[in-house]
Amino acid sequence: MTVVHFQADADLNQAVVTGALRRQPNLSFQSAYTARLEGKKDPEVLAIAAQDGRVLVTHDRKTMPAEFGEFILTKNSSGVLILSQKLPVSDAIDAILLIWEASTAEEWVNQIMSIPF
């Protein structure tokens, strides 16, 4: 059983990443800046996250679900977590920490989840 690692998409509110790392310093949550995701298209972002074994955390409800579906037809994904932009930052942090504490990386392979549902 492997711990879940996260990758922030370029559209994710950086306060979510910063706050999650502040509350749980052992969390592996890479910023979009660190991964150089700015300006990259969804398939490339999904490929980078998969290559690094990270669940992609995004606000993109418009294009990411369809791109994810296309991606997993030919490749494995480490998973995608879509957080509503209307979700308070503290609730988004709580969700990420719950996933980190209560699930394994293996459970996220080729899975997509949206919060709220």
TrEMBL record:
Domain DUF5615: 6-113
Pfam families per UniProt: DUF5615
Protein name in the entry: DUF5615 family PIN-like protein
Species whose genome carries this gene: Pseudanabaena yagii GIHE-NHR1
Higher taxonomy: Bacteria, Bacillati, Cyanobacteriota, Cyanophyceae, Pseudanabaenales
